[in-house]
Structure formats: C-alpha cells, structure tokens
C-alpha cells in the first residue's frame, strides 16, 4: 500500500493553496483535524515548507476541485506503480552504523534467554544473517570472549511489541508440536504484558523460612501448663508454710 510523502508538509500546502475543509485535509494526510487547524492558525508546523502533492504525482487538480465543491468528498492518493508494496520489507532489518557493533551482543541475549526463537526470527528482529546467529549459538564467533548479552529492545534494535510477538509465535509453534517445557522455559514464553499482569507469588521471609512449624516445647507440656490452677497463692508465690512461722517465734 502506497503512503503519502511528507504528510505534514502536504497539509501545509493544502491549507495555504486550497479551500478544503480541515477534516478533508486531516483524512488525506492522516493527521488530526485539530492539528490541521493549528497549521492554519500558525501554531503547528511553523517554518515547514509546503509540499505540492500535484507536482509530486500524489493528487490531481481535478480531485482537489471536486473535493472543494463537495465538503463531504474525500481525497484519494493517486496510484503510483513505483510505490506499490513498499511496506513489504525484504531481507534483514536495516541497522544504523552506530548500533551495528552492539548487534552481536543482542543476538547473544536472544540466544541465551529465548532459545526457542528460530534463526529466521532473530535475523528479522535485529537485522543479521543466519551464519552469524549460528556462530554465536555454537560459540565459534571470533569475538565471543568479549561479548556480553544485551537486550535488543534496550539497544533500540527492535521494539518490545515485535519481540513479544516473536516469542508468542514461538510458543504457539512449540505447543502445536507438543514439546514438553520446563517452568523456566514456559516463563520465558510470556510476553511483557502477561508478566506484568501476573500476581506476585507469596514468599516467606528467608530469615524464618523452615521455622513455620518449629516449637520450643511439646504440645502436651503446653496443655498441662495452661490447665494448671494458679488461683492457689501459696503455690503461685511459693510462700513458706505455717509450720515454719511457728518455729521462728520465741
């Protein structure tokens, strides 16, 4: 599907050179109607030079005239054969030069923490080749001793949603194949949203762990001590008997 080139600059040109409504311009450029109104008021896109959609083969004058005569009419992007299927990306993802040195570290992270991902999925996520992934899996990469696993999302090599989608796809594939997974492997297959929604497991403090059933005395002794009659003052205070008092008198 072809996309409009320079939508904001195109909106600036349409505001300045046509009598189209804000909604018509917003629908054509993919912007919000209030944003187009901001362009007309001078609050948005200040200093942006207008981009002529007619001269750049995106609209025809007849389409603009028709839309100006009918406020309910919608502008349609002119078909350009050269832009057909431009959204379909072929081959590995393009990685900027400034981030290419970190790409092996991200591959090592994916191989370590998501071994269920196929080489094709990793290649699509970070923009690499299968031989490179295989060398890191087998630890035969020339720089494997100096590599550190780093999250590709933190490096900006892919989005978290893309990583979650790849992990979920791998989870469905393994479930369809009927492979048994450990608890750690099953936990790795959860997306970030699912992990955040899970309730934390109740844990006992490590200082008292294992002491929940510990007791210093037997239960029978506790019952006898509880049943003892402490209403007898002599036995409670361990006072001397009356015979001792008579002996002390002269």
How is this structure best described in words?
It is a single chain. By secondary structure, the chain is mainly α. The chain has two domains: 77 residues, no CATH class; 110 residues, no CATH class. Helices cover 48% and strands 0% of the residues. It contains 14 helices and no strands. Helix 1 runs antiparallel to helix 2, helix 2 crosses helix 3 and helix 5 crosses helix 7. The protein starts with 6 loop residues before the first helix and ends with a helix. It holds the Pfam family TrcR. This is Cytoplasmic protein.
The overall average pLDDT, rounded, is: 76
- The H/E string reads HHHHHHHHHHHHHH
Count of DSSP helices?
14
- Number-wise, the strands total 0
End-to-end Cα distance, whole Å, is 122 Å
Dominant shape: elongated
- Radius of gyration equals 38 Å
Biggest sheet architecture: none
What percentage of the residues does DSSP assign to strands (E)? Answer: under 5%
Given as residue ranges, the uncertain stretches (5+ residues, pLDDT < 50) are: none
**Percentage of helical residues?**
40-55%
Structural class category: mainly alpha
Short description, anyone?
This is Cytoplasmic protein. It holds the Pfam family TrcR. The protein contains 14 helices and no strands.
What keyword list fits this structure?
mainly alpha, 250 residues, single chain
Write the layout of secondary structure elements.
Layout: H1 7-17, H2 22-29, H3 33-41, H4 61-69, H5 103-113, H6 119-126, H7 130-137, H8 152-155, H9 160-177, H10 183-188, H11 192-197, H12 219-227, H13 233-237, H14 242-248
Helix pairs in contact: 1-2, 2-3, 5-7
């Amino acid at each position: 599907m072809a996309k409009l080139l320079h939508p904001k600059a195109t909106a600036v040109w349409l505001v300045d050179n046509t009598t189209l409504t804000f909604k018509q311009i917003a629908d054509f450029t993919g912007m919000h109607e209030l944003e187009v109104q901001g362009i007309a008021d001078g609050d948005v896109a200040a200093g942006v030079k207008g981009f002529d959609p007619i001269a750049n083969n995106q609209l025809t004058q007849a389409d603009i005239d028709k839309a100006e005569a009918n406020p309910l009419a919608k502008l349609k992007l002119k078909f350009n054969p050269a832009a057909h299927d431009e959204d379909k990306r072929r081959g590995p993802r393009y990685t900027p030069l400034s981030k290419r040195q970190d790409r092996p570290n991200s591959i090592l992270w994916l191989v370590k923490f998501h071994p269920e991902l196929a080489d094709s999925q990793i290649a699509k996520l970070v923009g690499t080749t299968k031989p490179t992934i295989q060398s890191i899996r087998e630890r035969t990469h020339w720089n494997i001793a100096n590599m550190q696993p780093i999250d590709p999302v933190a490096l900006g090599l892919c989005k978290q949603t893309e990583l979650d989608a790849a992990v979920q796809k791998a989870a469905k594939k393994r479930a369809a194949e009927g492979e048994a997974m450990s608890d750690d492997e099953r936990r790795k297959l959860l997306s970030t949203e699912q992990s955040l929604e899970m309730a934390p497991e109740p844990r006992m403090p490590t200082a008292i762990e294992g002491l929940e059933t510990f007791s210093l005395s037997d239960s029978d002794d506790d019952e006898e001590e509880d049943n003892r009659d402490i209403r007898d003052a002599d036995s409670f205070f361990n006072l001397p008997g009356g015979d001792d008092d008579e002996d002390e008198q002269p």
